[in-house]
Amino acid sequence: MSEATAGRRDAAPLTGAPLVLGTIALSLATFMNVLDTSIANVSIPSIAGDLGVSPDQGTWVITSFGVANAIALPLTGWLSQRIGQVRLFTASVLLFVVASLMCGMATSFPMLVFFRVLQGAAAGPMIPLSQTLLLSSYPREKSGVALGMWSMTTLVAPVAGPLLGGWITDNIAWPWIFYINVPVGLGAAALTWSIYKARETPRKALPIDTVGLVLLVVWVGTLQIMLDKGKDLDWFHSGQIVALGLAALIGFALFLVWEWYEKHPVVDLHFFTRRNFVAGTLAVSLGYAAFFGNLVLLPLWLQQFMGYTATEAGFALAPVGLLAILITPFVGRFGNRFDPRLLASTSFVIFALVLYMRGHFTTQVDLPTIMVPTIIQGAAVALFFIPLIGLTLSGLKPHEVPAATGLTNFFRITFGSFGTSIATTLWASRASLHHAQLAEHLTPYDPAAAQTIANLQASGLSPDQARGMLNQLVDQQAFTFAATDIFNASAVLFIVLAVLVWFARPARGGSNAAAAAAAH
Fold this sequence. Notes:
Elements: H1 16-35, H2 44-51, H3 55-58, H4 60-72, H5 76-83, H6 85-105, H7 109-123, H8 126-137, H9 143-171, H10 176-179, H11 181-196, H12 210-229, H13 239-261, H14 275-305, H15 310-317, H16 322-334, H17 340-358, H18 367-382, H19 385-393, H20 401-439, H21 447-458, H22 463-500, H23 512-518
């Protein structure tokens, strides 16, 4: 982790066609990687239906990718020195392509989740190494321009993901959201290898913290499985969930002790003795968990209970990147003129406003009303990553930055997966509560219920069909109330985070270029 993003300055910058083609290749690989964090969001109901699982279980397609991606990050530095940055990047892209192909060909849900894990693991080294190779391609004075162009691909991908995923799911078939990675990945790998193979970094054997890595996989993996399966197995009434919880707890405790005293830790926990690092990492991780959890929840609600197609749900989500694309370059260029705590807390307040607006959605909400907070959310996204990472890195020495950014990204991605599981689990739980409360009033003696059933029967439905239709209406209301509960609770969390960032004490100045790179 500590060496992967350090960059190479010994090779001369590229010029002419190799520079253009190298930038395109690295940007394509990054675009493909980031696209796969959002393209499946609107396809979950279709995937779940085709493979015979519930939409709640379908979210494992997202969480398995995120957890594997996070776990692979700490290995990037060690692997890049062991086999070389160019070889590792090219191999990661090719493995990502193979895993994408197998995801599309999966004939069962466990098979799909397995290959999503493989895909997420392959994706781990791609983003930090794409930054490293890109920075080595440009003169030092052009590094800001290089990172700006690179960042645009990571902002466009979340806009394209829901739109592309929805259109493909409705008009072709969901496996093609994975198949489209094949030509893109093969092209990016071929271009990267042809341009950068002569610029390979020296290889050297370094010790690997095997025990720390195993403990990391154990506690993160078992905790994620517990969160994903808890609702289906009735949580701690299940021996399996109890066993997973104990394994996660013991694994985490052993991990903390081992990594603290290990000479070559896979994760350097000593950064958590720094005030700014703790406040920044906690804020970015919890903020990303709430953001990503709601990003998954919204299309599920729209498709399952509001009658939206995958394309329409994608269209409702896509505008999140519009303001981000416009504002982020200015934040990267002029953000160091402002206190990063002010920018970060502004981001959190905007997130809270967006979720407060969503907290007032009803079953009669129309598409324009849904899109307004989504558009506003783009401003929050633009002010989220760069100031928070800058705050997290404040006060660190230059040689500490790569390891610190890797550790922060590990926690951010891991918490994103945890946030998805927690949001969907709470949604189902709150919906059951609201359904029971609403059903209490649906008796033969309730005038409104009796009149509704009478109207349904008058339209030609049998008594059983009328009661079934009424139950569907209750479900729609219950899950809508549950969704607004999650939105409102998330708004409160963002207000708390807006206060939390002020516990940091950032040093004056700092490198926005480093923060921009680390932000992704």
